[in-house]
Predict the structure.
Amino acid sequence: MAMSSQPRRSFHEQLEALTRAIFDMGTLVEDRVRQAVQALKTLDFTLAHQIVEGDTEVNQLEVDIEQQCLQLLALQQPMASDLRTISTALKLVTDLERIGDHAKDIARVTLRLQGQTLLKPLIDIPRMAELACRMIRQGLSAYADRDAELARETIILDSQVDVLYQQVFRELLTYMIEDPRHIGQGTQLLFVGSHLERVADHATNLNEWVIFMVTGQHYQDRAE
């Protein structure tokens, strides 16, 4: 009996290691988003360079975690719930990698603003970033704790990010209409708002996959 239980114990240890790897990758990309917006807010070009150059680390984590998942699928015979856990991990790393890409793109916007001053203090863009990062962080907690209810509560935050994005859009458009000299920078800041809106979308995906992992049911009421 002890010998037959040993492979299963090893399998669950590998699943736990997979969960930790996902959590660590998610924590990293959340931090990158926050740093990217901070670099923009303060026009910290050194920090922006670091974020752009650090994207290869995120990409490598995606490859490593995918390899972990494929090894578990190939060498083990996961039951239905474990199979959902592994397939969810494969989905999550894709969304997390995309979030890392958006953080890199925000940092690139900052680099394009060298030699300029911000046309206005940034207020709603940092608020968007904070909400999006909260969605990532809560999604990771829901994943680690298998908490479908927390995932559902987190998905609702996406609508708040959308509202802030509309505010950013309207405000920047007003600046550009009133003074055409603001069009270049205003357009770049609109790109930042769009990137953050997409970060929240990927965080929503993350939480939807957590719900599927825990319940076996796909989340159906995003529109609500």
